[in-house]
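To: structure desk
From: M.T.
Subject: fold request, one chain
Message: Could you run this one when you get a chance? Sequence is below, nothing fancy, just the single chain.
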Amino acid sequence: QVQLVESGGGLVQAGGSLRLSCAASGRTFTSRFMGWFRQAPGKEREFVGSISWSAGSTYYADSVKGRFTISRDNAKEAVYLQMNSLKPEDTAVYYCAAGARYYGSSYYSYNYDYWGQGTQVTVSS
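Reply: Done. Structure tokens follow.
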């Protein structure tokens, strides 16, 4: 199995930046791609972006495109979510997830086999 632990969340003012980290352990070689999702109070879980371990190919939701950047460090078995120009509507619990394969698109949460516990991001106005 794969264990995922997110860190780096916190409270920032609008326009500020945060970098979230997701450390992977266990049988990480079984995972082919990583995804970031978020869930705000009273709302459904929302896709943020994804990255492949091999090529580092990324895909972003329109709501964060141009502001957020996903990267990975294969040696450290870690993925990152750099969040710039944060807005109050970015406030949510952010989750990282790992998948071995996908059907259709990495956008769909059913493609992911493992999930982290989440880290809170709060953006004040």
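Reply (cont.): Residues 2 and 28 are 6 Å apart (CA to CA). Let me know if you need anything else for the meeting.
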